[in-house]
UniProtKB/TrEMBL annotation:
Pfam families: MarR_2. InterPro entries: HTH_MarR-typ (IPR000835), WH-like_DNA-bd_sf (IPR036388), WH_DNA-bd_sf (IPR036390). The lineage of its organism: Bacteria, Bacillati, Bacillota, Clostridia, Eubacteriales. PANTHER family: TRANSCRIPTIONAL REGULATOR, MARR (PTHR42756), TRANSCRIPTIONAL REPRESSOR OF EMRAB OPERON (PTHR42756:SF1). GO terms for molecular function: DNA binding; DNA-binding transcription factor activity. This is Winged helix DNA-binding protein. Residues 1-142 form the HTH marR-type domain. SUPFAM superfamilies: Winged helix' DNA-binding domain (SSF46785).
Length: 150
């Protein structure tokens, strides 16, 4: 395939990725959140024993300052608590408070169900192929972008 053909597929793929991200952004905005805040809530929700702030940063490819600001907002609202990690006191474990669970249960489970419902409209073969190809493409993207940053 020549460069121009590949470029057209990149454009199509980016448009599809943008549609997915816009769905999250719109869902978040309707709940008074940013997409990043929604993603932070999602990560904490699916970590019943809590999660490290550093893990949230890594998962979202977000800076420590960005994640700290989001956690600080939820801390002020009484939705999360912070405790020192036993293995690294500089790192904090983020957990939902009872108020946070109450707040988040109306946001994250419906979004997770929507994602699962959307994917379940595909066949098992298509799901496996989507994940396989997305993994492959994501790894190539990471590799190529890291190469130009050096």
């Amino acid at each position: 395939m020549d460069w121009e053909e590949v470029r057209e597929y990149v454009n199509q793929y980016c448009a599809l990725r943008d549609i997915q991200y816009a769905a999250y952004e719109l869902y978040a905005r309707k709940r008074g959140l940013t997409a990043k805040e929604l993603f932070v809530l999602d990560i904490i929700w699916f970590a019943p024993d809590g999660c490290l702030q550093s893990d949230i940063c890594e998962r979202l490819s977000a800076t420590k300052q960005t994640v700290s600001a989001i956690i600080k907002k939820f801390l002020k609202q009484g939705y999360v608590s912070l405790t020192e990690s036993e293995t690294d006191r500089r790192n904090k474990i983020v957990r939902f408070t009872k108020a946070g669970i109450e707040y988040t249960k109306g946001i994250i489970p419906p979004a997770a169900h929507a994602e699962i419902d959307a994917m379940s409209d595909l066949s098992g073969e298509d799901i496996a192929e989507l994940v396989r190809l997305t993994t492959l493409f994501s790894n190539y993207m990471k590799e190529k972008f890291e190469a130009i940053q050096e």
